[in-house]
Design brief:
Blueprint: H1 2-18, E1 22-29, E2 39-47, E3 50-59, E4 72-79, E5 83-93, E6 96-106, E7 110-121, E8 124-136, E9 144-151, E10 156-159, E11 162-165, H2 183-186
Antiparallel strand pairs: 1-2, 2-3, 3-4, 5-6, 6-7, 7-8, 8-9, 9-10, 10-11
């Protein structure tokens, strides 16, 4: 009887996971065009008011199927409550592939776009860049735009055209497993609009 109850719970959980809405999917090879590295499959799914990023990786002989437990699973990667577009994009560079999590949004105060960039480096899913732009409607005044671009390779942040150097952080601090939609602001890479 206990085996039947355990099986029932396992199947119910599996059906719940499979029932999540897939927002976007992308695949590539972390080594870029050379295809000499690990292949991966990334999937962005709806998770209440957030977007969950899952990555299956480690395959040398082709793109993983996306079955079974993912190698990487961040359940609160991006805020999706006001999203108008949510997508995964793979950009191949001379240093390998970059997975971009793109979110465009609009609400009663502003509209904008954010892009979080990840690479697989030394067995870690690492945030290597971030971009955010918000255009505020500003009722009763002129609309204004705030923009922030963070390059975590160079440890620089450019906000509204002004570039500053960031304090160096350890490699582990850039682990994408605890990155959320507010991390660039919480960590002082970008300034919040008052």
């Amino acid at each position: 009887m206990r085996r039947f109850a355990a099986l029932t719970l396992t199947l119910a959980f599996a059906m719940q996971v499979q029932a999540q809405t897939v927002l976007s999917e992308a695949s590539g090879n972390w080594a870029g065009a050379s295809k000499q590295g690990f292949h991966f499959l990334a999937r962005l799914v709806q998770n209440d008011d957030t977007a969950r990023l899952m990555i299956w990786g480690g395959a040398l002989d082709g793109v993983p199927t996306g079955e079974g437990d993912p190698e990487f699973d961040n359940r609160v990667m991006e805020l999706s409550a006001f999203a108008t577009r949510q997508a995964l994009e793979v950009v191949e560079t001379s240093d390998g592939s970059i997975l971009q999590v793109v979110v465009e949004f609009a609400d009663e105060d502003a509209e904008g776009r954010s892009v979080t960039q990840l690479q697989y480096i030394d067995n870690q899913y690492t945030v290597v860049g971030y971009y955010h732009r918000s255009k505020f409607y500003n009722p009763g005044g002129d609309p204004f735009t705030r923009e922030c671009e963070v390059d975590l390779w160079k440890m620089t942040s450019t906000e509204d055209g002004v570039t500053r150097e960031l304090e160096p952080v350890g490699f582990e601090a850039l682990n994408a497993s605890d990155w959320t939609w507010g991390s660039a602001f919480d960590r002082g890479f970008c300034s919040r609009t008052e």
